[in-house]
Specification:
The chain is an alpha+beta fold and 687 residues long. The chain has four domains: 133 residues, Immunoglobulins (Immunoglobulin-like, Sandwich), CATH 2.60.40; 308 residues, Transglutaminase-like (Coagulation Factor XIII, Chain A, domain 2, Alpha-Beta Complex); 114 residues, Immunoglobulin-like, CATH 2.60.40.10; 96 residues, Immunoglobulin-like. It contains 14 helices and 37 strands. The strands form nine sheets. A nine-stranded mixed β-sheet has the order 1-3-7-6-5-4-8-9-2, covered by helices on one side. The chain has a six-stranded antiparallel β-sheet with strand order 18-17-16-14-21-22, with helices on both faces. Strands 24-30-29-26-27 form a five-stranded mixed β-sheet, with no helix packed on it. The longest helix is centred in the middle third of the chain and has 15 residues.
């Protein structure tokens, strides 16, 4: 009788599997593979070789604390002669003496997560079992049978593998790109993402059911959306919007997700202070890309926050153009969320593809602060019964704005305002390029088109179906050129009288600093013309000078000033509103790379910035994230003061990087100049 088969060791073939599964950055000391695709395994036996006629090999793969075959979290499968589609299989590919090369295949709908792989080897009636090792299974956008399959290799590279990108901020007329280090393959991030899944309330309540449902990207996206904020759980980020961040870190200060996720983990999963919409969206993007779900961050300019789902945002002003009543319903300058690519077998056909999900805590969804995933196509079609949270997202891009002027007797008069269109310039980073892509057309049909009217009818958006009233007088707010922080500048109320009448009006111009979520700060410029004469068929431009000394103390980190014009024609009791959000440009951070960018060579990064203000800067720091940085190199203080016009420089050593494209992201902060961002692409060539 043959002696027992004894396993000496199991080689998980990290290098070849990492290359085949696009997980090389994760496979340095562990096996990480993608589902629905075979991976290699080499068994080394001692004493004697495996004999198919004598030995029986059975494999077992389990995930979660209570694995069960019926839940999909446990699989037992024998060594087979051929791969069976959609099942766990092991096939012998080669045998030489005591070495057996195998390919293991996983189903394209297996739950993702950490698995333990073991082997039972039996010879006759005797047997022994061996633990072969652990592996992490991820979603697979390269596998046609996976729910996250994308057929474009360029898009797979961008939305799963690219570790840096841009997030769009500013205002609809001046869109600003902010570099961001997603860093989904940096050290420890995968473990943190798995911890995040195990901290979610659904896992804590019923771990077996939660692990089973990890086969679905729809379920995973919903869990991540809830766990990135900490409103219902031990989630990652605490949101704050009042410009008071002394006991934490200002949301504008972050330049990547890695630092945030590591802080959460090292603090014992205590919430990290503070986040705002782009930070929540970017961290969700990091986690989902890490798990293998194609994901991108999108920005919606003029984004509506509609609490009562009536698709209407109503503002009440007094006759001086000041907003009355503190209202939580408002228009945000911009709002960021994430989109993930997946099929939707839980919905009617036609709703596969990009799904919007929003981890910023705004409204509860099924009792939890999360939002989505909802098909972007459903938003475009006005199909508001679609899971999840379609009415809220539809309102963000389509709500109507109504402005009321409160008279002295308390009565209300409706005002015309054509400068406030909700849902504009919806933006994301282009595939493979550092450019902005406008994806508004994926959310909305062209304005005034029959398809748009049909979508509004379907959504019961009655306000939008009424024809707009054309007025004989038009007004818009203009700014002459791009405006820099520290400068004085002019804005203009440009008024057109298209009637044959001579009109006498009152014009109020008011400038106030504003946060990106629409909350107004102090006044920084005003003009009140009591008797403005408008000749028939004429145009007029009325200037308002805005001085740095007036806005310097109250400009928020959003770098925005809202200029509002109210034109009143007392004789006809007509009111016309126009407004413009002006983004003030920060100075440029210059980044130089010193040394030859080749594999395994040491490089030095130099970042510099010139103080553009007429006064010194105090408390200056540079923060860096990205290519070749060690932990302690990330924050560098600059000696005080940095005088007006002075250039300040810092240098940092970069660790050797592998061949390919890397990005360095830099943030500069000081007492008067905040959250200045810069980036540099570094192309590393072979040695």
């Amino acid at each position: 009788m043959a002696e027992d088969l004894v396993l000496e060791k199991c080689d998980l073939e990290l290098e070849v599997n990492g290359r085949d599964h696009h997980t090389a950055d994760l496979c340095r000391d562990r096996l990480v593979v993608r589902r629905g695709q075979p991976f290699w395994l080499t068994l080394h036996f001692e004493g004697r070789s495996y004999e198919a006629s004598v030995d029986s090999l059975t494999f077992s793969a389990v995930t979660g604390p209570a694995p069960r075959e019926e839940a999909g979290t446990k699989a037992r499968f024998p060594l087979a002669s051929a791969v069976e589609e959609g099942a766990w299989t092991a096939v012998a590919m080669d045998q030489q003496d005591g070495i057996l090369s195998l390919q293991l295949s996983t189903p394209a709908n297996a739950p993702i997560g950490l698995y333990r792989l073991s082997l039972e080897a039996s010879t006759g009636y005797q047997g022994s079992s061996f633990v072969l090792g652990h592996f992490t299974l991820l979603f697979n956008t390269w596998c046609p049978a996976d729910a996250v399959y994308l057929d474009s290799e360029e898009e797979r590279q961008e939305y799963v593998l690219t570790q840096q990108g841009f997030i769009y901020q500013g205002s609809v007329k001046w869109i600003k790109s902010i570099p961001w280090n997603f860093g989904q393959f940096e050290d420890g991030i995968l473990d943190i993402c798995l911890t995040l899944l195990d901290m979610n309330p659904k896992f804590l309540k019923d771990a077996c059911r939660d692990c089973s449902r990890r086969s679905s990207p729809v379920y995973m996206a919903r869990v991540v959306s809830a766990m990135v904020n900490c409103n219902d759980d031990q989630g990652v980020l605490l949101g704050r919007w009042d410009n008071n961040y002394k006991d934490g870190i200002s949301p504008m200060f972050w330049i990547g997700s890695v630092d945030i996720l590591r802080r959460w983990k090292t603090s014992g999963c205590q919430r990290v202070k503070y986040g705002q919409c782009w930070v929540f969206a970017a961290v969700a993007c990091t986690v989902l890309r890490c798990l293998g779900v194609p994901t991108r961050v999108v920005t919606n300019f003029n984004s509506a926050h509609d609490q009562n789902s009536n698709l209407l945002i109503e503002y009440v002003y007094d006759k001086f153009g000041e907003i009355q009543r503190d209202k939580s319903e408002m228009i945000w300058n911009y709002h960021c969320w994430a989109e993930s690519w997946m099929s939707r077998p839980d919905l009617q056909p036609g709703y596969d593809g990009w799904q919007a999900l929003d981890p910023t805590p705004q409204e509860k969804s099924e009792g939890t602060y999360c939002c989505g995933p909802v098909p972007v196509r459903a938003i475009k079609e006005g199909d508001l019964s679609t899971k999840y949270d379609a009415p809220f997202v539809f309102a963000e891009v389509n709500a109507d704005v109504v402005n009321w002027i409160m008279q002295e007797d308390g009565s209300m008069c409706k005002s015309t305002n054509n400068s406030q269109t909700v849902g504009m310039k919806i933006s994301t980073k282009s595939v493979g390029r550092d450019e902005r892509e406008d994806i508004t057309h994926t959310y909305k049909y062209p304005e005034g088109s029959p398809e748009e009217r049909e979508a509004f009818k379907r959504a019961n958006h009655l306000n939008k179906l009424t024809d707009k009233v054309e007025t004989g007088v038009a007004m818009r707010v203009r700014v002459a050129q791009s405006v820099s922080v520290g400068s004085d500048f002019d804005v203009f109320a440009h008024i057109t009288n298209n009637t044959a009448e001579n009109l006498t009006c009152r014009l109020l111009l008011l400038a106030r600093t504003v946060s990106y979520n629409g909350v107004l700060g102090p006044e920084c410029g005003t003009k009140d013309l009591l008797n403005l004469s408008l000749e028939p068929f004429s145009e007029k431009s009325i200037p308002l000078r805005i001085l740095y000394e007036k806005y310097c103390e109250c400009l928020t980190e959003s770098n925005l000033i809202k200029v509002r014009g109210l034109l009143m024609e007392p004789a006809a009791n007509n009111y016309l509103l126009a407004e413009r959000d002006i983004y003030l440009e920060n100075p440029e951070i210059k980044i130089r790379i010193l040394g030859e960018p080749k594999q395994n060579r040491k490089l030095v990064a130099e970042a510099s910035l010139r103080n553009p203000l007429t006064m010194p800067l105090l408390g200056c720091t540079f923060t860096m994230e990205g290519a070749g940085l060690t932990e302690e190199q990330k924050i560098m203080d600059v000696p005080d003061p940095v005088e007006a016009g002075e250039e300040v420089k810092v240098r940092v050593d970069l660790l050797p990087c592998h061949v390919g494209r890397h990005k360095l992201v830099v943030n500069f902060d000081s007492d008067k100049l905040k959250a200045v961002k810069g980036f540099r692409n570094i192309i590393i060539g072979p040695a």
